[in-house]
Structure prediction request, 312 residues.
Amino acid sequence: MRVIGWRCAVCEGRVDIAAPFPWRCPNSTADDRHHVLTIVNGGSLADASEGRRPATPSLITHDRDLAWAAYAEANGIDRASRIELVESTQAAVRQVAAVGFDRTPFARSDELSDALGFDHDGGLWVKDETGGVAGSQKGRHLVTILLHLLAAERVGHLADRPPLAIASCGNAALAASTLAAAVDWPIDVYVPKWMSNAFGSELDRLGASVHRCERRAGDPPGDPAMLGFRHAVAAGAIPFTVQGPENALALDGGRTIGWEIAEHAEVILDRVMVQVGGGAFAACLGAGLADTSPTTRLHAVQTEGCAPLARA
Prediction:
């Protein structure tokens, strides 16, 4: 297996790959949350080309490169059993969402390339995630958390099912609720008061428990929905989130989008533009591309009115 452990990017704290639930750095506290576990690799990206078929999910072809799978193997779950777990999870997700974690299209946009003045040797290529689970890439971050939890059940590290928790009123909440519904796992979604009723109805359809969070006198600065989420996690809920500092495994499956792009060997990528909020998407895409395209420049694109990476 390629992944051999976890290391905090801030304090160098370590977590063994065989340990269950590597959500946060062991040195992270309620008063000091500026920590994030990162994946420690012990070798180069495994050759996933042998036997690859276009319909084979990256979760299977890159089994030996994923942290959840390394945890599973370290605790006695062999490759055949891991593949079976991925396939059964895929089938369950398809029952709810009609799609699974399949490779998404990556192709040259002739219309955009022509409009921007590229000749036939260059151009603009687009990775289209709108056909993925819940209509975005968010499910990629969450599915490896779910697979880790299902593996933990199999090896006896998880005796019951505490509720999953997420703070979101967008694509992440929709993806999280879809996965939870697929495996019949309770989930609490913490949202701001202004969340639309239409979106709430979709979360209700998926069986999520929705908590509208208002700002109260005496609350610390920040998002009240995130505060509600953190209170839930402190009380025993599982952080089922796409934010790396809250759950490091969100940075595992997200890398598959970079690996899929890199599989198109006929494309030499000079620059990659990626829209980001908090940064997990850009971090995962960058990590995936770094394995095969180390000279590609990554541009994180944010809205002018909400650009935390630029401000940082």
Remarks:
- The mean pLDDT is 91.
- The CA atoms of residues 47 and 186 lie 37 Å apart.
- The first strand starts at residue 3 and ends at 8.
- The chain is about 35% helix and 15% strand.
